[in-house]
């Protein structure tokens, strides 16, 4: 019987402030029976809780292989554990704790004749100054030191994931009011609201009108990712206040996305599958233009087949004239002579 052993293919630190972690041998396939560990070595002895944000750009692991994130909170003996597997790219993860450890395992639990591996994973991690993971049906998110201005170099992130509905006819999405107190339009770039559970999801427009400080928006699903980054400007940060609640949706695009009322017939494919632009009442289609007649060759305006017929007719008449006109002419000229000749003939 064949024997299997664990191969230590990789390990490393989760060093602040940020970094990238990939499966071993990426972008090639990872080895079987590998166990890789990345840990927060620099802060392993501290008791101060920290926020860690993890996002994925690639993820594909068979169900018998896994990636596990472990952390402890306030020196509790039982650590928090999050295990990820499968072929779907996970939503972003924000956890609070100390002594973070990230473990990848492709160890076969029992001998098998044939095993398969997945594509692997690519993840980005970043330590945060503020933020968190929110799962309540309604809540409030504010900028650091709100309502006072803040000019500290900080990066904060929040994930919001409200509960699903208990039936298939409706879906919960997020309705939120965003208040921006700053007069300077340029600082709006410090805040990003992503329409989904990841920093890789599309960014929502903060304001329909640049002159308004308050914006009400609806999400497409029951998830949002919010990022506030004031690490690069060194100027006065953005003051914002976001109040969200659960909005029940009962009209859907064909692809399952909640169909907002203001999406209908606005000329924009908001659904992504054009459902919101079907059966729209509007101005009728522009009539097709009258076809332009084909230009006539030669500029005479006479069809070519008439020209051919006339030419043929002229040839025929010419031949007839050459053959018969001389005979007719002689007959008409010597008509009296013929008559005299006939009379003078003797009678037999």
Automatic annotation (TrEMBL):
InterPro entries: CUB_dom, LDL_receptor-like_sf, LDrepeatLR_classA_rpt, Sperma_CUB_dom_sf, Spermadhesin-Link_domain
Keyword Protein transport in record: no
Sorted UniProt keywords: Disulfide bond, Membrane, Transmembrane, Transmembrane helix
SMART domains: CUB, LDLa
Gene3D superfamilies per record: EGF-type module (4.10.1220.10), Spermadhesin, CUB domain (2.60.120.290)
Residue ranges of the TM segments: 305-325
Domain of life, per lineage: Eukaryota
Cystine bridges: 253-271, 265-280
Pfam family, one: CUB
CUB domain boundaries: 10-128, 130-247
PANTHER family given in the database record: C-TYPE LECTIN DOMAIN-CONTAINING PROTEIN (PTHR46908:SF8), CUBILIN-LIKE PROTEIN (PTHR46908)
Protein name: CUB domain-containing protein
Organism: Patella caerulea (Rayed Mediterranean limpet)
């Amino acid at each position: 019987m064949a024997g299997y052993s664990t191969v230590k293919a990789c390990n490393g630190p989760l060093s602040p402030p940020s970094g990238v972690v990939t499966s071993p041998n990426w972008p090639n396939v990872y080895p079987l029976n590998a166990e890789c560990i990345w840990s927060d070595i620099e802060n392993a002895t501290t008791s101060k809780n920290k926020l860690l944000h993890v996002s994925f750009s690639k993820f594909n692991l068979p169900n018998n292989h896994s990636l596990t994130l472990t952390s402890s909170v306030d020196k509790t003996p039982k650590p928090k554990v999050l295990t990820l597997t499968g072929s779907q790219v996970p939503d972003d993860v924000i956890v609070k704790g100390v002594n973070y450890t990230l473990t990848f395992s492709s160890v076969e639990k029992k001998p098998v004749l044939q095993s398969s591996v997945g594509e692997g994973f690519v993840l980005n991690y970043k330590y945060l100054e503020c933020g968190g993971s929110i799962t309540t049906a309604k809540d409030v998110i504010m900028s650091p030191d709100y309502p006072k201005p803040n000019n500290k170099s900080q990066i904060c992130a929040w994930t919001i994931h409200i509960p699903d509905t208990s039936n298939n006819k409706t879906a919960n999405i997020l309705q939120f009011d965003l208040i921006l107190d700053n007069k300077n339009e340029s600082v709006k770039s410090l805040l990003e609201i992503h329409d989904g559970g990841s920093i890789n999801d599309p960014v929502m427009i903060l304001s329909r009108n640049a002159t308004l400080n308050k914006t009400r928006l609806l999400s497409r699903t029951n998830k949002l990712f919010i990022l506030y980054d004031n690490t690069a400007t060194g100027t006065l940060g953005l003051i914002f206040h976001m109040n969200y609640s659960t909005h029940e949706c009962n009209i859907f695009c064909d692809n399952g996305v909640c169909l907002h009322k203001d999406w209908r017939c606005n000329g924009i494919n908001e659904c992504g599958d054009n459902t919101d632009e079907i059966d729209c009442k509007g101005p009728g289609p522009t009539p097709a233009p009258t076809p332009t007649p084909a230009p006539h060759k030669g500029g005479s305006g006479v069809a070519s087949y008439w020209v051919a017929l006339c030419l043929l007719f002229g040839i025929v008449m010419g031949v007839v004239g050459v053959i018969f006109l001389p005979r007719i002419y002689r007959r008409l000229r010597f008509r009296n002579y013929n008559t005299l000749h006939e009379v003078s003939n003797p009678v037999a």
